[in-house]
User: Fold this.
Amino acid sequence: MRALPRHFFVTGTDTSVGKTTVSVRLIQQLVAQGLTVIGMKPVASGCAWVDGRWQNDDVLQLTAASNVSAPPELINPYCFAPAIAPHIAAAQAGVEIDFKVIQTAYTQLTAMADVVIVEGAGGLLVPLSGSQTIADLIQALNLPALVVVGMRLGCINHALLTVQLLKQRGIDFCGWVANSIDPQMSLPQENLQSLIERLQQPPLLEVPFQESLS
Assistant:
């Protein structure tokens, strides 16, 4: 695996393309290299009330893989019960997602670990409020972006649009991961090669199909 930035943001071409699966794998690989690593998910929707607080399965997976302990409110500042778009969940809860809260939490995490991997929600243009999106959050955190490409029909278009938007926003594109999410995908190797040619770099990782993806 090529060297990654010290801290980076994991985004995806869509929802359910395996951002958590990939983030966990990256955390595990970096921990194996002797680094202290912590995963962060600033905004999560789809949470259950467990042990006196809202908890999200993606966050639990990131926390389990990390080798640094941190308060839950730093790892996941915003957690909403319904598994719906974050801005709608926030509106229903009467909460405004404040980037300053997320920035403060992120800064505290960077002081605790060699590497902080920040996982987004959905794709780059998922709204977090009436005017702000995941792409705006990446810019606010001043992080490079790693793109998880869900390998299925349409992935080439989705990947190229995602990377094009990163470039338009001036966000550093630090690599991509080919995550197999459709075991029945036609001509997967041909699609992979098309992505390599058009993104002008091979994937950092190729993740085989898994029954459960986050």
Summary: The chain has one domain: 8-207. Residues 48 and 129 are 22 Å apart (CA to CA).
